[in-house]
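Q: Start with the shorter request: fold the first protein.
A: Done. Sequence, then structure:
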Amino acid sequence: MIEITSLSSSHLAALQELEAAALSGMSPAALASALAAPDTRVLSARQTKDADKQAGGALIGYAIVAIGPFDAEIEAMGVLPGWRCQGVAGLLMQALIEVVIQAGSERLLLEVKDTNTPAISLYRAYGFTFDGRRKGYYPAEEGTAGRIDALLMSRGLRS
C-alpha cells in the first residue's frame, strides 16, 4: 500500500537519500530550503507495511510545490527507479493538486526537460498544456552534447 504524507524538516536526511537515488535534480541545500519554506509543501509517497498503514514504511517518491497567491509551481518530483511506471507519480500528482486547490491557487505551473517523455505524458494526463519553451535551459546530460530545452506547462485549477 502507498500512503501520501507531508514531510517536515525532521525528514531531511530521508529526503536527501531518496533524491540521491531518484536523481530529479534537487541539491541537498534546495531540499533543506524547501522543507523550511513556509509557502512550500513537500509531499512524500511511502510504502506502508500493510493495509493498517503501520509506521516505518520506506520513502519511494516525493513532490515539492511552491504556493503563491495566484499560481503554484511544481519545483521537483522524484520516484525511486524501481517504483517508476507503477502509479506513484500519479498519486503524488493527485495529492499535490488537492493541496494547491485547498491553498486557493488558480493555476499550477511546471517546467520539464523536453527529453523526459514519461513526465510529459504524466503531466498531459493530469490536464497540463504546453505554454512555451526555454531553449537550452538545462545542461547537457552526461554523454551528450548540447543543452536541453525546458517545456513550460500549466493547468488551471478553477472551474
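Q: Next, the second protein, separately.
A: Sequence, then structure:
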Amino acid sequence: KETLSLEESMGLTESTLRLATLAQESFTESTKYLTSALRGFKLEMSDADRVVDVYSELAAKAAADVSDIANAMSRTASISESAGMALETTAAFLTQTVETTQESAENIGTAMKSIIAR
C-alpha cells in the first residue's frame, strides 16, 4: 500500500474537492471517482489534477456533466487501460456517448466496459 507524503495528500484532497465542486457530488463519491481513474489507468496520485482537468474540459465542450463522465469512467478505467487506451481517449469516448445517447452514466460505463472487453 502506498503511503502519501503530506504534500501529496494535500494535493489529492484539493483535486478531490475540485472534482466534488465541478461534479456537484459528495467528497466521498468524488474520492471514489478520482481513485478509480487513478488506479484504473495506473497513474500517480500527482496526476489527480490531470484527471479533473480532462473531465472538466470535456464537460465544457459537450452536453455532458462532469459527474456523468466521472461515473462512467469509474466503471471503465481499468479495462480501458488494459486495452491500451489513454485516459483522455476513454474520457472522450464516454463523453461523446453520454452526449449522444443521454443514457445514464452507469449504463454507458458498463456498456463501454463490455465493448472493450470483446
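Q: Describe the second briefly.
A: The two ends are 31 Å apart (CA to CA). The chain has a mean pLDDT of 91.
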